[in-house]
């Protein structure tokens, strides 16, 4: 009966226009509709599948502004049991290391954790490194980029997908897993699930509650800074290849020039 | 631009958010393909069932959500805006549960309703016959009591979900006493002697099946009679009073979708070196379309609020059906006009919207029949 913590993050909806704020190059979280990151929906789904098969409890954990309660509620309405929300103005602009430290401390607040499930990377301000850093901080094995997760007793087996092929990983619990796009298809919550979610416990914590000094987190003491930001340039016009009987060769030449073949 | 709604509470806001997400991600992308192929969206109805959307306005005790009509209809509208056949199907399913939910015994409701409201069964409502459309009381499908069963023979016509449904709320003749000789049976689709004819080949709403349902000595257990013998027509017409509000909501959703397409197209299409949206002739067309959509929405919501408060709403429901479906016909026709030649081709959805709009003026009481109902109410007052 594994006790699972799922890390969830609220991100700007990829359907809406996303911006960085002019003053400090952090993500402008007010400018777009905020949603539960899709990869986190898959992480929640995986936790629920494990719970449905083996029992246990699913706790969602989110570090984010007050508004992140909406993402938390979405996860609870899908079927998670309870939530921990770390919300503190001091966290604004935190880097990946600071964020991971806060997450690690918050995981410590949940009793008897067997498994932490995260998405492999977010769709907004992202490093793709939180699961690995977190595993290091917790002293747990890390099984990242999973496309299949199997738990047998205290052993976890993961199939990892990389560009080179599939890797099979095995570790003992407790462990940190990060899941990729192919792990599953997340369910939609039901209306009853949405109503039930309102009654589920959400524990809200500040960094002080986690025993972390406010000075250790946030933009001022971050280990990385965004110095400059520019929007992605519009796509340039493609290169036209005139076919004078040697079109194939010209295309191959072009691809070799781009180091694509 | 999605409709801007004033919802009564955060529960309703959360529900509409869920519905919009499902509509945007699971319904809208498949609509054109299914409609073109005439393929019934059975899986999509299952998804609605899993999401708890197939029994919204009914009692929680039997798997519903005790939701007000004011909110339920806006759910229907959002779904119809993404895919009309699914919106209409949701409305018809909801109507097909009405007789049992309202008039069944507790024993019947405990036995049948939870799967109809909280599961993924799909219902049909079988009243019309080829010779008994507007004049439904002329129906002649016969049910003879034979011990613990009724033996049913006759043919129901134009039945939405005919051949796809899991149950048919069927109006049958149990005596020759005119309108008082009609009774209501909840018929399981697996009943031997019940078959569906090949679907009608329709002008629009091609993803939704419409078919004759043939009863040939079908044996229906007598404990599937809802209410008493002779109650059937009253139940059927009462169910239609609420069903019409569902059709009004579908019509508004369809019109909203057409308006959204028209505005988006007009902004990016340029002629005479200007976006066509800046020609006053087009502006006024779009403004009239928006006025038609929003006044139709207000009309059905007003009727729904009356229903939710237990006030008489029959006249208002008929007015809403009349106003909303006429608005949908006009708005979808004008949307084709705004898109010009593109609008007339199947590369854009508005010609389909126009074909889908037409049926809303016909089923669940033609718009002439709505006027008959409205006038009857006026004469009574
Ligand atoms: C796609 C589709 C789905 C349907 N789904 C269902 C369903 O699920 N269940 C079901 O039971 N039925 C269903 N119907 C049947 C529908 O309800 C009938 O078609 C409708 O009630 C009209 O009946 P009719 O077709 O016999 O037309 P008629 O009654 O023959 O009407 C023909 C014309 O005469 C006019 N007219 C008739 N009587 C009067 C009057 N008194 N005053 C003025 N004008 C009048 C009508 O308005 C119409 O213009 C469906 C129909 C369609 C097209």
Automatic annotation (TrEMBL), chain A:
GO terms for cellular component: cytosol. Its cofactor is FAD. Keywords: Electron transport, Transport. The keyword Transport applies. Gene3D superfamilies: HUPs (3.40.50.620). The keyword Transport applies. PANTHER family: ELECTRON TRANSFER FLAVOPROTEIN BETA-SUBUNIT (PTHR21294), ELECTRON TRANSFER FLAVOPROTEIN SUBUNIT BETA (PTHR21294:SF8). Belongs to the ETF beta-subunit/FixA family. Heterodimer of an alpha and a beta subunit. This is Electron transfer flavoprotein subunit beta.
From TrEMBL, chain B:
It is an enzyme of class 1 (oxidoreductase). GO terms for molecular function: flavin adenine dinucleotide binding; short-chain fatty acyl-CoA dehydrogenase activity. Its cofactor is FAD. InterPro entries: Acyl-CoA_DH_CS (IPR006089), Acyl-CoA_Oxase/DH_mid-dom (IPR006091), Acyl-CoA_Oxase/DH_mid-dom_sf (IPR046373), AcylCo_DH-like_C (IPR036250), AcylCo_DH/oxidase_C (IPR009075), AcylCoA_DH/ox_N (IPR013786), AcylCoA_DH/ox_N_sf (IPR037069), AcylCoA_DH/oxidase_NM_dom_sf (IPR009100). The keyword Flavoprotein applies. The keyword Flavoprotein applies. Residues 124-217 form the Acyl-CoA oxidase/dehydrogenase middle domain. Residues 11-119 form the Acyl-CoA dehydrogenase/oxidase N-terminal domain. Belongs to the acyl-CoA dehydrogenase family. This is Acyl-CoA dehydrogenase, short-chain specific. It comes from Actinokineospora spheciospongiae. The lineage of its organism: Bacteria, Bacillati, Actinomycetota, Actinomycetes, Pseudonocardiales.
């Amino acid at each position: 009966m594994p006790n699972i913590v799922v890390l969830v993050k609220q991100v700007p909806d990829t359907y809406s226009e996303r911006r960085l704020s002019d003053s400090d190059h952090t993500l402008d979280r007010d400018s777009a509709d905020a949603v539960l990151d899709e990869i986190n929906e898959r992480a929640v789904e995986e936790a629920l599948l494990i719970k449905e098969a083996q029992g246990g409890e699913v706790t969602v954990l989110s570090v984010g502004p007050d508004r992140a309660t909406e993402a938390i509620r979405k996860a609870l309405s899908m079927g998670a049991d309870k939530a921990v929300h770390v919300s503190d103005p001091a966290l604004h602009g935190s880097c990946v290391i600071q964020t991971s430290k806060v997450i690690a401390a918050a995981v410590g607040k949940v009793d008897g954790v067997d498994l932490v499930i995260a998405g492999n990377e977010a769709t907004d301000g992202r490093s793709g490194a939180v699961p690995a850093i977190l595993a290091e901080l917790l002293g747990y094995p890390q099984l990242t980029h999973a496309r299949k997760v199997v738990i047998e007793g205290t052993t976890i087996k993961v199939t990892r997908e990389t560009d080179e092929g599939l890797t099979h990983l095995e570790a003992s619990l407790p462990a940190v897993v990060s899941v990729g796009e192919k792990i599953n298809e997340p369910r939609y919550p039901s209306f009853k699930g949405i109503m039930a979610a309102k009654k589920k416990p959400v524990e809200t914590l500040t960094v002080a509650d986690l025993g972390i000094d406010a000075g250790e987190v946030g933009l001022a003491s971050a280990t990385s800074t965004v110095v400059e930001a520019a929007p992605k340039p519009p796509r340039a016009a493609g290169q036209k290849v005139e076919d004078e009987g040697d079109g194939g060769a010209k295309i191959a030449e072009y691809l070799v020039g781009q180091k694509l073949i | 631009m999605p409709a801007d709604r004033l919802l009564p509470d955060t529960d309703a806001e959360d529900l509409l958010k869920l519905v919009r997400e499902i509509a945007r991600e699971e319904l809208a992308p498949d609509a054109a393909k299914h409609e073109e192929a005439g393929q019934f969206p059975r899986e999509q109805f299952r998804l609605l069932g899993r999401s708890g959307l197939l029994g919204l306005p009914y009692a929680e005790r039997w798997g519903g959500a005790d939701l007000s009509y004011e909110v339920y209809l806006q759910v229907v509208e959002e779904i119809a805006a993404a895919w009309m056949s699914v919106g209409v199907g949701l409305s018809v399913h909801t109507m097909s549960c009405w007789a049992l939910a309202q008039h069944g015994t507790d024993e019947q409701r405990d036995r049948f309703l939870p799967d109809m409201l909280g599961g993924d069964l799909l219902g049909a409502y079988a009243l019309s016959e080829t010779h008994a459309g507007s004049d439904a009381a002329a129906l002649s499908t016969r049910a003879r009591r034979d011990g613990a069963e009724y033996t049913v023979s006759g043919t129901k016509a134009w039945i939405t979900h005919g051949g796809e449904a899991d149950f048919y709320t069927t109006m049958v003749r149990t005596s020759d006493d005119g309108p008082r000789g009609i009774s209501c049976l909840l018929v399981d689709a697996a009943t031997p002697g019940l078959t569906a004819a090949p679907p009608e080949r329709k002008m629009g709403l091609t993803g939704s099946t419409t078919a004759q349902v043939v009863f040939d000595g079908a044996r229906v257990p007598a404990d599937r009679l809802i209410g008493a013998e002779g109650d059937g027509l009253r139940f059927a017409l009462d169910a239609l009073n609420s069903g019409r509000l569902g059709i009004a909501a579908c019509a508004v959703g369809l019109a909203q979708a057409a308006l959204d397409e028209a505005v988006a197209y007009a902004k990016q299409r340029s002629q005479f070196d200007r976006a066509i949206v800046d020609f006053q002739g087009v502006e006024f067309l779009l403004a009239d379309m928006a006025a038609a959509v929003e006044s139709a929405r207000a009309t059905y919501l007003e009727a729904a609020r009356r229903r939710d408060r237990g006030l008489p709403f029959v006249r208002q429901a008929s007015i809403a059906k009349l106003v909303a479906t006429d608005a949908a016909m006009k708005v979808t026709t004008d949307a084709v006009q705004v898109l010009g030649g593109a609008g007339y081709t199947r590369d854009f959805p508005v010609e389909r919207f126009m074909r889908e709009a037409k049926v809303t003026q016909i089923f669940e009481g033609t718009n002439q029949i709505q006027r008959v109902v409205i006038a009857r109410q006026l004469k009574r007052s």
